[in-house]
Specification:
This protein is 61% helix and 10% strand. It is α+β, with helices and mostly antiparallel strands. The chain has a 5-stranded mixed sheet, covered by helices on one side. The two termini are 64 Å apart.
């Protein structure tokens, strides 16, 4: 089914009706643009004046929906009006058709029509003057300019302002959309950062509590139960303190809260001692110079999570933590006995390896974890250069890429 032509705009109907009624009113008063004695008035009957008036009024109905055909037909009507006694309403409506063709027409029409009307104005001045050689002949060009060039230029100016306003509106909408996307991304990244911090700070204590409570319940030995309860109490207190500190940071106004103490590699000794208290046979071998703060925090968290994984998954045996600085990078390697234990000693969420891989990716480093013979090896290489744009290793630019890389490793322990 063919699409029906668009209906005229309500304002266009009012303009057409007003122009037609105005023209009829002028005709009823006998007011015309030219007298019967004018040599151009070849058709001096009243019906001849009415035809271009009706045609031009009809074109006004199309000024917004079909501006180019309306201008073409209106031009034919105004040419016919030149050979009649003329009607001022017909002339005024024609100027509106020129204005509407520029304002509502295509971009090509809006560009070309003012130039065409300008050229027509020049011709309307030069040709009559060249023929009659009198200054009054220049008034013809003035009239053409008022009827054609002025409305075309006005339409071009209005269209330019309208297009500029539309572009500004679209730009404002795009800016608001980008701001909302940035806000959503910032919230998502902050949630990921908090998830890593919660996991790294609390998971170690909770894993130790789960393992030692299982031992206390399964071994009928008062001394063993007493030792297990002591470890459980120590980890409960430390985990509770970490939770309270983190909740306090979240509750405070960022502008008023003091910066939280960031773990450094100097605290690895205390971290290893805590792992030994939880039952791991840990050896620490750290040979490195002073490294940037983002690298220190990432290395500390990777070691912390590796020890937590060893506590939950490793077989009995020595656990080795090595830190070495070489080739402008800090290498972190943690190895633990690997074998078939029949299941972890404490349940895991699967987020441990994801968090370590994210921390390495945020610094532009490399991370790998998996069995190597009889050992489970966690290895991270953290570059020490090009960290000027990284103020916080939990800054969330590369976390999504790291999470994508985790998709192929769903079977790894955490």
């Amino acid at each position: 089914m063919a699409a029906s032509p668009p209906r005229p705009h309500r304002d266009d109907v009012l303009i057409a009706a007003g122009g037609l009624l105005g023209g009829l009113f002028l005709m009823s008063l006998g007011l015309h643009s030219r007298t019967r004695a004018d040599p151009m008035s070849l058709l001096d009957q009243d019906w001849a004046v009415l035809i271009p008036l009706l045609v031009t009024a009809g074109c006004e109905l199309l000024r917004r929906t079909r501006p180019r055909p309306a201008l073409v037909i209106g031009t034919l009507a105004i040419v016919m009006d030149l050979f009649t006694r003329g009607n001022l309403a017909t002339l005024v409506m024609f100027t509106d058709l020129v204005y509407a063709a520029v304002l509502y027409g295509t971009a090509a029409t809006a560009r070309r029509l003012p130039w065409s009307m300008g050229a027509l104005t020049v011709l309307g001045s030069v040709v009559p003057f060249a023929i009659w050689r009198v200054p009054q002949a220049l008034l013809i060009g003035v009239g053409v300019g008022v009827v054609a060039l002025v409305p075309a230029s006005t339409g071009s100016l209005v269209r330019h302002h309208r297009d500029t306003a539309e572009a500004e509106r679209l730009r404002a909408e795009q800016t608001a959309l980008l701001a909302e996307m940035d806000r959503t991304q910032a919230v998502t990244d902050e949630r990921a950062r908090m998830a890593r911090e919660l996991h790294d700070m609390v998971a170690n204590h909770l894993s130790a509590i789960a393992i030692h409570s299982t031992a206390a319940l399964s071994i009928d030995d008062p001394q063993t139960s007493q030792q297990a309860l002591a470890v459980i109490r120590e980890n409960s207190v430390e985990g509770l303190a970490e939770m309270r500190r983190l909740i306090g940071i979240l509750r405070k106004d960022p502008a008023e809260s003091e910066p939280a103490a960031t773990p450094t590699l100097d605290g690895l000794g205390a971290l290893v001692d805590g792992a030994r208290t939880n039952g791991l046979d840990v050896t620490l071998d750290a040979a490195h110079e002073k490294v940037p703060a983002p690298v220190e925090l990432a290395a500390y968290r990777i070691v912390q999570e590796s020890l937590t994984n060893a506590l939950k998954h490793a077989c009995p045996g020595p656990v080795t933590v090595r830190l070495a600085q070489r080739d402008k990078a800090l290498e972190v390697r943690v190895t633990s006995p690997y074998g078939d234990r029949g299941g972890p000693r404490a349940p895991g969420s699967g987020a441990g390896l994801v968090g370590m891989r994210e921390r390495a990716a945020l610094l532009g480093g490399a991370f790998e974890a998996g069995p190597q013979g009889a050992l489970w090896t966690v290895r991270a290489v953290l570059p020490l250069s090009d960290l000027s744009s990284v103020s916080d290793p939990d800054e969330a630019g590369a976390a999504r890429a790291a999470r994508d890389a985790h998709a192929a490793r769903q079977g790894e322990p955490a």
